[in-house]
Design a protein that fits this description.
Chain lengths: 557, 198
């Protein structure tokens, strides 16, 4: 067995030209390479989406600014939202799930490797198609333009009358295509978890990353599909003269809202549950304690999955639903705070009494705990219908959900990159650059998004391209924009760290964090086949058992 | 007896997990069900809201015969699968062909209905809300039948070439799951379009 392994490694290393290795990467069906491709692709779009955010913020830095035209401003916020949701956070989450789930459950690959590659390329080409709209949005005549309908693309903005040319079609088809990719990957993750676990890896012993990837994938199946259906309806309306969302022929604009948010709210949990997974892997290792309340954690995740599917219309309180619907959606929205609160207490319980090591991954996770709590609290405020009537469509909402998406999800993603980068590359990320990245990003984040609540409370609506002076919004907008630049600098340092450490970082070895899950038993980076011999597992912390044969976890199961 | 099973359970070979093809198809079916649910909701929400004719009551005729064809194809594919498991290839191929023909008949029925609606009643997808929702819901289902028929056809050709035996029965079972799903969806579509929606 071991001589085979050596033979394969030698063949791998044997002088390949860059064309050959490029060909290897493009045609790969290996889950680790596809995972890295997903993550690199997401980083590319993170930079693009970030630049769009900078354009938005520069335009709003002072009243009556004319950095960009109103038309360009509309395109920027549409592309920023669509990019960040569909082409940054979802791919990065799929990337980590792809890379880690097979390693964590002791499998040699995903259940369907070719479907995996197919799904990645669907997502990738979806993103490129969206950005091709800058060239092809108006068709063959005139200059191109990107979609400008907002990332919700509410009807009737998307109808032919209001979106002539092809920009809305690029948006629809890009999202549709990447949606097929997401469904493929979700199918793959679930099949991998059900059918590929190594002997002894029962569902109750699976790392929480496995459980949470499974719940995330289930939500993808149930909630991306309605978006797919709605996009098909939109295409029927735009190309075949259908009337789904055509109010002139009896169609309903509110139905699009419902279909969009039936996707849109579970989507938030599709993005945040993998972030929970990263926190649940990182916090125990850097607290030197096993996760507190594993079964409750699993139950809370599944609970969030179920409840998240019945809260969508809290995005629509202002369209005028009846009071029974309003009450229902207020109550379900409040109910979701219960399992989420359980999780926060479990993470705190894990840290309580542990020997906490504040390495960079842990710093990001601790910041996540604080910020996620605040994001949840403003979420409860916005979940109350009367409060929502006052502040819906204001910068308060923007501040709230950026607290979720940046303050919680992006922080966990950074933590995960610092934590698993050694496994993926064999090199440690530079710790002092990492700490600098962390502090700069925390300061920038709080400057931007804490203060952004205030113009919202003062009545500043979202999606306006400029505003009148003298409303008390100027200073807040100025500070918010300054914070954005701090975050941009922090992200540049992060990217520099990725490159520099890849070339010059310290050797990581198999298990730099003294962790307990199976991926740390493979070499860094792991060989193509992951494990020379399929491991057998007897507890939730197989590597603890191996390192401490005198006191294995399996004794207490 | 009990000793034997105990020692078996401790060997690594006793670690049994579900077949990945079945799990994958189950996932696809969940996702597809969500897509169909949205189209069904749209159909029901817009039922009776068209601003102009023709209405479902005026033009729709219940396709009893073709429905029987499609539903009975679920039976034939089930028995085809069972015969394949037992290794009787001839019976498998015969029943498989029958399934294909029944599915093809159903598709012919849909085509006939659409032809009648378009040329006799002037109902197209852009005529009114009924046209939009009807053609997209029934069309989505017919699309799934078409995909199923293509896959059934491929398996049949492989079968004729003698490449489908008992060892492929698990894979054939995955396709048969899909076909059962397409049939079950028709029950919902039939109820919604021809019973509730009129």
């Amino acid at each position: 067995m071991s001589s085979d392994a050596i033979a394969i490694r030698v063949a791998d290393a044997g002088g390949r030209t860059w064309v050959e290795s490029l060909h290897d990467w493009i045609t790969t069906v290996d889950h680790k390479r596809l995972g890295i491709l997903y993550i690199l692709y997401a980083l590319l779009f993170l930079v693009i989406g970030g630049l769009e955010a900078l354009v938005i913020r520069i335009q709003l830095i002072r009243p009556h600014n004319d950095f960009v035209s109103p038309q360009v401003f509309n395109r920027m916020f549409t592309m920023h939202g669509t990019t960040m949701i569909f082409f940054v956070i979802m791919p990065v989450m799929f990337g980590f799930a792809n890379y880690l789930v097979p390693l964590m459950i002791g499998a040699r690959d995903m259940a369907f490797p070719r479907l995996n590659a197919f799904s990645f390329w669907l997502t990738a080409f979806g993103g490129f198609l969206l950005y091709f709209s800058f060239l092809g949005g108006s068709g063959l005549y005139g200059a191109g333009s990107a979609p400008d309908v907002g990332w919700w693309a509410y009807a009737p903005l998307t109808s032919r009358a209001f979106s002539p040319g092809h920009s809305a079609d690029y948006w629809t088809i890009a999202v549709l295509v990447s949606g097929f990719g997401s469904i493929g990957t979700a199918t793959n993750i679930i099949a991998t978890i059900f059918s590929m676990r190594c002997p002894g890896m029962t569902l109750g012993r699976m790392p929480l990353m496995g459980w949470m990837s499974m719940v995330m994938s289930g939500l993808v199946l149930i909630s991306i599909s309605p978006l797919t259906a709605a996009q098909v309806m939109l295409i029927v309306d735009r190309y075949l003269g259908g009337h789904f969302f055509d109010t002139q022929a009896g169609g309903s604009a509110a139905l699009w809202m419902h279909f969009f948010w039936i996707f849109g709210h579970p989507e938030v949990y599709i993005l945040v549950i993998p972030a929970f997974a990263f926190a649940s892997e990182i916090i125990p290792v850097f607290s030197r304690k096993p996760i507190f309340g594993y079964p409750v954690m699993v139950a809370a995740t599944v609970g969030i999955g179920f409840i998240s599917m019945s809260v969508w219309a809290h995005h629509m309180f202002t369209i005028g639903m009846n009071s029974a619907s309003n009450t229902f959606f207020v109550l379900t929205t409040m109910a979701i705070a219960v399992p989420t609160g359980i999780k926060i207490f479990n993470w705190l319980g894990t840290m309580w009494g542990g020997k906490i090591q504040f390495k960079t991954p842990m710093l990001f996770c601790v910041a996540f705990l604080f910020q996620f709590l605040i994001a949840g609290l403003t979420g409860i405020m916005l979940g109350a219908a009367p409060f929502n009537w006052q502040l819906s469509g204001s910068y308060f909402v923007i501040a709230h959900f950026h607290y979720v998406i940046v303050g919680s999800i992006l922080f966990c993603i950074f933590g995960a990159v610092y934590y698993w980068y050694p496994k993926m590359t064999g090199r440690m990320l530079n710790e002092s650059l990492g700490k600098l990245h962390f502090w700069l990003f925390v300061i920038g984040f709080h400057l931007t998004f804490d203060l952004m609540h205030i113009p919202g409370l003062l009545g500043m609506p979202r999606r306006i391209y400029t505003y009148e002076p003298g409303r008390g919004w100027e200073i807040w907008n100025l500070l918010v924009t300054i914070g954005t630049f701090l975050q941009a600098i922090a992200i540049l340092m992060f990217l520099a760290n990725l490159v520099v450490s890849y070339l010059k970082g310290a050797e990581a070895g198999n298990d730099p964090w003294d962790a307990w899950t199976l991926e740390w038993s493979a070499s860094s980076p792991p060989p193509v086949y992951n494990f020379a011999a399929i491991p057998t597992v007897e507890s939730r912390r197989p590597l603890w058992d191996r390192k401490h044969p005198e006191d294995p976890d399996s004794r207490y199961d | 007896m009990s000793n034997a099973t105990l020692s078996m359970a401790q060997e690594p070979g006793a670690w049994k997990l579900p077949y990945r093809g079945k799990v994958g198809m189950a996932c696809l079916i969940i996702a597809e069900s969500a897509i169909f649910t949205i189209f069904v909701v749209a159909y029901l929400y817009y039922a009776g809201r068209s601003l102009s004719g023709p209405t479902p009551r005026e033009v729709l005729e219940t396709p009893i015969f073709f429905t029987i064809c499609l539903l009975s194809s679920s039976l034939t594919i089930h028995f085809a699968e069972k015969f394949l498991e037992r290794g009787s290839r001839g019976a498998f191929l015969g029943l498989w062909l029958l399934t294909f023909i029944l599915g093809g008949l159903f598709l012919f029925g849909t085509a006939q209905e659409w032809h009648r609606l378009i040329y006799e009643h002037g109902l197209t997808i852009s005529t009114n809300l009924f046209g939009t929702t009807y053609y997209s819901l029934v069309g989505l289902h017919a699309f799934h039948v078409t995909v199923g028929l293509i896959m059934l056809g491929i398996v049949f050709l492989f079968g004729l070439a003698g490449r489908v035996g008992a060892e492929q029965s698990a894979r054939v079972g995955v396709l048969s799951m899909y076909w059962h799903f397409v049939d079950a969806v028709w029950v919902v579509v039939f109820t919604v379009v021809y019973i509730v929606g009129r």
